[in-house]
Amino acid sequence: MRLIKYSEAINEGICEAMNSDKSIICFGLGTTDPKAIFSTTVGLEEKFGSERVFDMPTSENAMTGIAIGASMNGIKAIMTHQRLDFFLLAMDQLVNNAAKAHYMFGGALSIPITIRLIIGRGWGQGPTHSQNLQAWFAHIPGLKVVMPSTPSDAKSLLISSIFDPNPVVFLEHRWLHNSLGDVKKGLIKKKIGECNVLKNGKDITIICMSYLTIEAIKASNYLEVKGISCEVIDLSSIKPIDWDSIFYSVKKTGRILACDTGFTTCSVAGEIIARVSIELFDKLKAKPLRLAMPDVPEPTSFGLTKGFYIGAGDIARKCLAIFDHKTDNESDILPEPVPHDIPGDWFKGPF
Amino acid sequence: MEESIDKKKLLKTMMRIRAVEEKIAKEYSQQKMRCPTHLSIGQEAVPSAISFCINKNDFAVSTHRGHAHYLAKGGDLKAMIAEIYGKETGCSKGKGGSMHLIDTNVGFMGTSAIVGNSIPVGVGLALSCKLKKSDQISVVYLGDGAVEEGVFYESLNFAILKNLRVLFVCENNLYSVYSSLDVRQPKHRKIVSIAKGIGAKAEQCDGNNIEECLKVCTYAISTMRKEGGPFFIEFATYRHREHCGPNFDNDIGYRTLKEFETWKLKDPISNYQNRLLKEGSCSKKDFQYFAKEIDDEIEEAFEFAENSNFPLKSEAFKGVYS
Ligand SMILES: Cc1ncc(C[n+]2csc(CCOP(=O)(O)OP(=O)(O)O)c2C)c(N)n1
Ligand SMILES: [Mg+2]
User: Fold this and answer.
1) What domain range includes position A103?
2) I need a surface site. Which of A1, A103, B291, B307 has the fewest CB within 10 A?
3) Contact at 8 Å (CB) between B209 and B203?
4) Number of domains into which chain A is organized
């Protein structure tokens, strides 16, 4: 066992990749500043020099295009933004260029860029610092989208993303940065498009991603005590998505709850429910369930975010309902921590 | 013109903004203002000067660092503090927080947490004024970082093209978060020269000298009112505290203590106080009197915020559409 933090795993992943391949560059606003993007880029400039590791102007769209251009000539770029929301300025380069180039030029080009985007939550991040837009990215043919929930996946998926010949959107949840996990040394890779079956069970398949994985595990432990055996699937890759494993699991359990950190309408969870319903309609023992964030921007106020996020309690309640479990004080099941707007004592705001 | 300036009022405007920001800094550790908060301490002179040359019905839009701009435009203090506290009485009903301030009663049309985001909005407000044949102007506050966004060029270009009355106020404090201008823009090229190059009337100004600011802004705005068209001003300024949050951050290593101290010596408020003392247009007693008046107002605003309720949880789900 070698326990390290998610943020350290990211840093290791970049280091290992850059060590093994001189064509890799790493940039983003704050990459070389003292805070080093929540410590994920610490020491990189010292190790690899300022030609390969550099800060950038506040120019998200142009810098994405610049990464694309460099990648056409053999450079592999890792670009990071401290919030996903800031990267929305670059949707033109991402969607009209990066995602299309390989196809549109008949295979003459590949665009091996990795775009790390950090998703914020809590401490009043509010409407434009907290968006989980994985479904947007997954909607675009030509993009790969990953959302690691463990330090090991963070490192191995990042390395795979960097070496993937396609543009990969790599989504990190700010609340995961301090989580600990066992991470192997060296240049470890994980196949993009493979999920993690975190827990085997026989009664219901719970599908989750990113920070919600932690909540789903909590819920499944609770449900186990209540006699409901959950199979927990952490998607890890959003696109391509591991349909084989999802179908295999649902065939076994006959029930599905798809959870999503994004808005409900057109969510990844919605897509999963659609595909499962189409492919496995006759295998389902109960109606398929979805639990995603409401179609509402995240408000800023401490008062308004109380109970706003879906969590372990919501997951547990959904599952109990499907089995007609009657419990007293339903609303008290797995309550959110107090205060609800920070992931732990390590996070004191403001960002 | 010298004589007609209300120097005391100018000073008091700056002192009020400073005192509000310092009170926020002081109380922030109580963990009741739970949102990213960017203070304007050190940057009070520019918005204060502007507040003397524009009218209530002129428009302004601003950025994540918007407290000073909101207050200088006449934004309601109580509603701002309540917003930072996340209360239902806040100017955005708790939905927006420190980075989303608005007071439409005084033409303050909102701040944005996304760099460059409000620049075209300010230009659009100016377009609406032109369409309505009004000579109102629109003030767009932006930082040195926002100049690096494409939308800045696109917006300035359109404002020039359509001869729109937009005052672009660029507060160059040398940093975008912890990234200094050196790693973001070419050495020796001035931001003001970009604006000129695109074809805007543009000036540079010491953002720590409020009378200088007032002079340049008065000239810019009277030119705009007469001839139409945008005006761009780059102000040299400096934030004293950390990028986001209430503390000082000279220890973390992105800027030197020497640099900080050099700029601190140029502090717009203490320098102006000294100047007014020397001129004899103000006494120390005056300062104390202003401070007291301001403190009373601020105490009341914080009390108001503390005593206000959080919005009902159900409010989170309302107001997505109008
Ligand atoms: C599009 C976008 N990119 C990055 C950020 C992160 N960010 C928040 S404030 C800020 C600083 C911008 O610098 P400047 O415009 O000079 O304003 P200052 O903070 O110095 O007042 C940055 C980069 C953001 N909010 N939006
Ligand atoms: Mg700046």
Assistant:
1) 2-183
2) A1
3) no
4) 2
